[in-house]
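Let us practice reading a record.
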Amino acid sequence: MRVALIADTFSPLRTSGAVQLRDLSRELARQGHSLLVLLPAHDQSENWKLEDFWGIQVLRLKAPKTKDIGYVRRTLAELAMPFSMMWNLRKSPFAKERWDGVVWYSPSIFHGPLVHSLKKSSRCKSYLIIRDIFPEWAVDMGLMGRGLPYRFFNWVAHYQYSVANIIGVQTTGNLKYFERWARQPNRQLEVLPNWLDKPAQKRCSIRVDETVLTGRKVFVYAGNMGLAQGMDILLALAEKLTSRVDVGFLFLGRGSESTRLKNLAELRQLSNVLFFDEIDPDEIPDLYAQCHIGIVALAARHKSHNIPGKFLTYMQSGLPVLANVNSGNDLAAFIRREQVGQVCESNDITELLMLAEKLLNQIETVTYFRPRCLALFEREFSVEQVTKQVLKALTI
């Protein structure tokens, strides 16, 4: 098949979305398909620039800057983004290219016009991979009310849903949100779990045995540190465990809360906590090989269901998880059913502490965590299975 993949993040960025799309692209190529990745680029003078990554064609199209700017400017830039991409695509060698399928990744919610244009010219199906149900999660987090901004973003989101033939959501709990959409003819709704490629073999620049955490059982958190993660309770947990000299916490990544959390750990003089900036995703497997338990954190105010990419990396590395998530999240039942860790839904530090100590005891006394985690990853989250699922939906 000839497939167009549209996104606003890709390698060499280190976000979970960029890594997932890199892995999906690699697998599409491995399975013999022809792929063009379409990305907005604000930092180039050319209208378009074609690059090659691992034999994959990546077309960067000039578009307004949408990251690290004020909310109003960002909204206007994102609104203009798909039209800028369309305009510059017409100036590229791919202007008259025809596709067997269009796949796009949300966030962002603004790719609808570009997808509609490619679908219409190619007379093909489109597959929306949706990871965040925005603006609903922003309302849940108290970042937005249901006023005019919400109505605008909700309209944009529903427009992108309207141009999709297939929508793939992360978990079964998110299916309900799209029930009304799925009642329309020629639409398909399904669960498309997150995915990862086979782990890299790159030596990690962080060496735990050269830090104050050497010799300890290490809880590791790798990923975004923002309001959506609700990570204050993790520092509270670390503070409760300061008396245990055999336990440590390692946090790495970036995000709106990372500096504040680091400063808070220093203020509380948490000698069992270390913070690092984000690292190359290919270094993550070697980092996890030096750790013992992976941490998943989702703010209690969430109402949607989410299986973060970091959960997959823990499973892929054979690490059991300690999770603090919103009540009713599909991930909680999943962890308990698969017996790959402990999960707290109450956001209560007393319960989280009890579960952490229980898990610390378990990793000393049971041997099934690693094989169980590895088997779960291969069964549910391999990029091979996800790629076949997407292509099958496009060809039915």
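A brief commentary: The domain at 208-379 is CATH 3.40.50.2000 (Rossmann fold).
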